[in-house]
Write a structure and sequence with these properties.
Blueprint (H helix, E strand, L loop, with lengths): L2 H5 L2 E6 L5 H12 L4 E7 L2 E8 L6 H27 L19 H14 L1 H6 L1
Antiparallel strand pairs: 1-3, 2-3
Helix pairs in contact: 2-3
Length: about 130
Amino acid sequence: MSSSTSSSMNKYWIPHLDIHKKVITQELQYYLGPEATVRAFTRDGEDGFLITTPGPCLSDEQIDDICVKSKEMWERQAAARASGSSSRTLKRPLHAPVVISKAGSSDSSRRRNKDRRRNDPRREERR
């Protein structure tokens, strides 16, 4: 981009509140044309987006539309995380752990104690 083109571009900042970065990145050129760009930008300590465009910035209706689409995106991501955590498959299913015994299981601990008593060398001496 040449300096003359750069100086003819308008720059606008909007706060990031209720706006998903992926949504604004995908929608911006649809609303403002192919020359429009957006990037994360902090202004006076507040995070937001710096929009560079040859024309006017987004209208209130366009920002509302982006906010609605952002909310839908967050809901889809949350649903995917919730469903993905319980049905996630192991990368190597052949190495899945197989439970042999569990700590505190009364049945297995009784068997172990019985085996210990039976094999105790002191017990043989007492007979």
